[in-house]
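Ticket closed. Logging final result for Protein lifeguard 1-like.
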Amino acid sequence: MTDIESQKPVPENDPSHAATAPMYAPPPYMPPPYPTGPVMYPQPVHVPVSFIPPNLPPEETGISKAEEPNPDPAAVFPPEECQMFVSSFEDDTVRKAFIRKVFSVVTIQLLATFTVVCVFTFSNTVKAAVQSNIWVYLSSYIIFAVVGTCLAVFSTFSRTHPWNLLGLSVVTLSLSYMVGTIASYHNTSAVIIALGSTLVISFTIIIFSAQTRLDFTVCNGILLILSVDLLMFGFFSIFFYSSVLQIVYGCLGALLYALFLAVDCQLVMGRQTYSLNPEEYVYAALIIYLDIIMIFLYILMILGGSSKN
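Final structure:
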């Protein structure tokens, strides 16, 4: 018991303990755990942050599409990249060159066709030879149908030089022989009137299509319906033939192909909703040439129905 009691701790505030406690050297001075001088904090680095607007429809943002700025393509894209976004037909120089080429080819075609028509009409010898060899007319019709279909359907054929010009020449010569053969069965005065009327109508439609703001290129569906109606009308006219019916059919056909000529001219001009590729100058010349020839044939039908012969 005495050993345990002698081992009891003595409180530190006991004066007897202070007198009897051994003296120790004070501990060395330790620096405080925090800096005593001025603190240098690192300066914050400013990171550029851009605001990415949400992709919202114009109705929710309150901005209409008409109010959106139209950026300059040259400022957004380099010049060499900007050329990739511009259609070749939007270039005014390319468009004018395309128009000149098309109408030059059409003029040559019409001169060749109307020359053949005049020879077949005014020369009695040629007229008799043509009318006695009807198999040449049928051969010309087959050649025209085959080559014309290839030019209209196969774009590689209509764009490959010089095969496209060769095919167009074959179509022009075969159709010229066909039109000349048909004209040889009509009076000379009727053929001359049909020629003059066709030139006046075609020139007026071409000038009107180039100047008007009306868009005829969106009327292809309507023209397709009218073409089917005219085809059915002509088919049933075979069984109920009369001169009055022939005049009506001729008037409807001339009017329909006048509308086709207006549409095709605007496709060539390239100022409306739809336009032709500048590489399709042979196809463009072909469709305009066919429109003018069909107007001539329908006017000739009107004059033939009104003739006493």
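Residues 150 and 187 are 35 Å apart (CA to CA). No further action required.
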